[in-house]
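Researcher: Let's do a round of design. I'm pasting the structure tokens now; please hold your answer until I've finished.
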């Protein structure tokens, strides 16, 4: 079975190595880079199972900030995966990765399931040892079978990416399996995100000043 991980990047030199390393058990990692000006592409290309293509569609804002249209960026990756003969794909943000037990058992879970998609709980990490439990809802889509019956496509939305045509027959995993989303590793990153959102005409409240506070210690099972 050919399993392919997909990721969109734009100046992700801080995260790309950890993402690629977390998916070294897949057959391929496809990186669609949206015009990085840092070392994202160079770092990604050091991994033997990683391939990089340029995604050259950009939205430029008067503030000087640039972003790639999320839905078209995702669909670019999905179409590329089909070209490569992927049977299952995994998709997530570059600052997110499976916890150790999920990475260890993921291939077997995918190969043995009779469902068409897999959903996994997501923990939004604060720093390195805490998370924001109020930001964590139910399981989110993580992997799916890529065939004619499963035609998940991305749609551009004002606040990000929305996926359509998600199958009903999903395998929903629970603890100790989870995705670790390193959204807020430090205060500098938080302030950079707030500035970026403001620069593209959106609003982002500091996590510790909004409804998601306070952070809590990560559960012991996360790294078991």
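Researcher: That's everything. Go ahead.
Model: Designed sequence:
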């Amino acid at each position: 079975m050919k399993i392919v991980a997909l990721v969109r990047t734009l100046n992700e030199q801080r995260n790309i190595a950890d993402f690629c390393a977390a998916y070294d058990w897949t057959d391929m990692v496809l990186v669609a880079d949206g015009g990085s000006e840092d070392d994202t592409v160079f770092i990604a290309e050091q991994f033997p199972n990683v391939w990089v293509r340029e995604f050259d569609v950009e939205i430029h804002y008067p503030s000087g900030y640039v972003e790639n249209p999320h839905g078209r960026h995702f669909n670019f990756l999905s179409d590329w995966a089909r070209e490569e003969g992927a049977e299952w794909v995994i998709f997530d943000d570059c600052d997110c990765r499976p916890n150790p037990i999920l990475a260890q058992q993921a291939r077997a879970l995918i190969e043995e399931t009779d469902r068409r998609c897999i959903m996994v709980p997501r923990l939004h990490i604060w720093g390195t040892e805490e998370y924001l439990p109020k930001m964590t809802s139910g399981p989110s889509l993580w992997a799916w079978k890529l065939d004619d019956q499963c035609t998940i496509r991305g749609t551009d939305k004002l606040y990000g990416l929305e996926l359509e045509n998600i199958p009903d027959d999903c395998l929903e995993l629970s603890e100790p399996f989870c995705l670790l989303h390193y959204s807020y590793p430090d205060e500098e990153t938080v302030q950079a995100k707030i500035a970026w959102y403001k620069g593209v005409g959106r609003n982002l409240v500091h996590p510790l000043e909004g409804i998601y506070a306070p952070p809590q210690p990560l559960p012991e099972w996360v790294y078991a």
